[in-house]
Fold these 2 entries.
Entry 1:
Amino acid sequence: MQLHRTLVSKLLLVTVLMFGFGFALVPLYDVFCEVTGINGKTSNVPATVLADGIDTSREVTIEFLARPNKDMPWIFKPEIRRLTVHPGEVHVMNYLAENPTGRMIVGQAVPSVSPGQAALYLHKIECFCFTQQQLAAGNKMLMPVQFYVDPALPAQFSTITLNYTLYDVTANWQGSAATENLGE
């Protein structure tokens, strides 16, 4: 009987430790990514244009991707798929959004950059991802992003991919109760 109690105690301890490790994994991963710079997250704060000038001696290709989350019914895509830029040059690129449903939907775009280390060098001056986007039933809109690539981008990066995932946040939107009746 003593052997069974010892075994049960050890199994419970292992279970608690595994749960604790799983709970701590997300913050530990965030710290790891912050330290190594491999997270691909971009800033949610508008950047200011640097006065360093434009590096015309090199070109960087920016690839634009878009995908709505599985629960987001919008049609969401970049206006163009690729753009070649000089570091330091400011560009505006549009994403196209269409709400084919019969109700107003609020969307929130979450950006990511690949390779992750390049996220530190892609600066958004203005971006639809900074705020939630409302789109009435059956409507379309252009969602611009104004950006530049920092001239300090290491030479090893010749292509940067900017990807937006669009989420339906209508249920979390402050005015959702008032606007639910508008779409009906």
Entry 2:
Amino acid sequence: MKIGLLSDTHDNLPKIAKAVEFFNKNRVEFVIHAGDFVAPFSILSFEKLNCEWIGVLGNNDGEKEGLIKKSKNRIKQGPISLVLDNKKLIVIHDIENYDNEHADIIIFGHTHKPEVKKIGGRLLINPGEASGWLSGKATIAVVELDSLDVNIIEI
């Protein structure tokens, strides 16, 4: 199963549209957003995804109820846990101070820096900032769950 990851979109509608277009073109089967959508209007682009998607709230998501409602409850307060392709995934915005339960993959954002590392048998993935506001580099990630191959892609 191929999944798409993004985080820290911060209302950058052109970059969100590029990410959605990339995920659709590359036929990802599920998309996960690791927080900091910011405003509810930014959710409209996600409706163009050709697959199911979920997300967690981030520290810059001010209108939380609006985001949850506009996303039809796809966005939740993190951490959230789900199983895809027999892999347990945890999604959280800020991994700092998180006492993680058992998971195969932990997906996080907040730092705006793409990161892929293995710690104690767990794969930790930060897709970086899809907005590109801080670093000037907008990134997303694609993960092949069967092989745990991760690709960070600049959009």
